Amino acid sequence: MKKKKKKKKKKKKKKKKKKKKKKKKKKKKKKKKKKKKKKKKKKKKKKKKKKKKKKKKKKKKMKKKKKKKKKKKKKKKKKKKKKKKKKKKKKKKKKKKKKKKKKKKKKKKKKKKKKKKKKKKKKKKKKKKKKKKKKKKKKKKKKKKPVIYQEAKYPPLEPLL
């Protein structure tokens, strides 16, 4: 058997990179933005409709009711207890001191004098008074009573002719 010869791998040389100097950048101040609050929408709950169940009517049987006898209860007498009187202690009242209030002085304002204007006199017109008319009262006419002649039924016709 022949032995296989191992091949040697060639190593690649790495190139060195030159490092560049970085310039420092000035940092800008960022303005803070106000966050808006979002309003939550309320969800409406749907009402479920309940189904009504039909009740079956039961037939009632007529039965005679028995009368029950009532028992009389005996009343017990209560004993009265004597109450002891307690002595009350008197409390001393403290006097309160009143504080005096300081009054503020008001400043007086100076009034300016106004010049008087002369007014022209106006002639007054005389108003005529209206006379009130008096209402005349109507007199009621008296009804004449019919003249009754005793001698004749009709009145005499001589003076009229």
From TrEMBL:
<dbReference type="GO" id="GO:0000786">
    <property type="term" value="C:nucleosome"/>
</dbReference>
<dbReference type="GO" id="GO:0003677">
    <property type="term" value="F:DNA binding"/>
</dbReference>
<feature type="region of interest" description="Disordered">
    <location>
        <begin position="1"/>
        <end position="161"/>
    </location>
</feature>
<dbReference type="GO" id="GO:0030527">
    <property type="term" value="F:structural constituent of chromatin"/>
</dbReference>
<protein>
    <submittedName>
        <fullName>Uncharacterized protein</fullName>
    </submittedName>
</protein>
<feature type="compositionally biased region" description="Basic residues">
    <location>
        <begin position="1"/>
        <end position="146"/>
    </location>
</feature>
<dbReference type="GO" id="GO:0006334">
    <property type="term" value="P:nucleosome assembly"/>
</dbReference>
<dbReference type="InterPro" id="IPR005819">
    <property type="entry name" value="H1/H5"/>
</dbReference>
